[in-house]
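Hey team,

Filing this mostly as a record. A colleague (T.K.) asked me to run one chain through the structure pipeline before their review meeting, and I want the input and output archived in the tracker in case anyone asks later how it was produced. No errors, nothing strange. Just documentation.

Input sequence:
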Amino acid sequence: MSPPLRALACLLLLPPLYAGAQVDLTGSVSLQSEYRYRGQTPGGHGAVPQLTLNLDGAGGWYLGGFASAVTIGDLDGYKLQGYAGYAQRLRSGWSWELGCSHIGYTQLHVNDFQECYGGLSGERFSSRLYYAPRYLGYPARVLYGEVNLFYPIHPSFNLIAHAGLLHSLSAGVWPGIPANSRYDARLGVSIPFGDWTLQVAREHGQDDGMRYRAYPVHPSKAWSMSATYSF
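Output structure:
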């Protein structure tokens, strides 16, 4: 069993094992108009289902799993991600966290990779810096930094924004990995309906001509939509 599958299995088994402990199991299921990852679309257009599970402990530790249908080139399969970390709230109300994750692809294990991250978040702001020693399975050390903003304009209308920057620390150019940096951005709105959230956003990825092996050509700008149920 691969590491992501083991992480998801642990999430399903831990609640009954620790029924008396102070742990919270939360998650979401969603339908995305297409799969995008750090400004890149690995396959053709089409809606994809996604599942997220999180287990949070009272002491600040957490672990989770994420699964998404994904097409790489013309290969259908799933992206499976298992992660674990530790977070603490500061007196100022902000929180910091450290963690690591393993990302695997059922149809293309050569692209499996690991990364660690650190982050800082507040009520309407979150940021993370990721480090991968072999990004997407290639011999390239990569940093990815992201900033996410959430601003409630109205009780039923929220503004959302994201900005990310992928930066290579390795000499030379690997398939799809820039020699220097590549940015991605998203600006949109989210509309909550009880446990449901609808989201519409405009995506912008830098078209630097560098694409991962088997990734088709997509416009650098596109609209995205999603419907998410949280529990």
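Quick notes for T.K.: Residues 11-19 have pLDDT under 50 and may be disordered. The CA atoms of residues 49 and 209 lie 29 Å apart.
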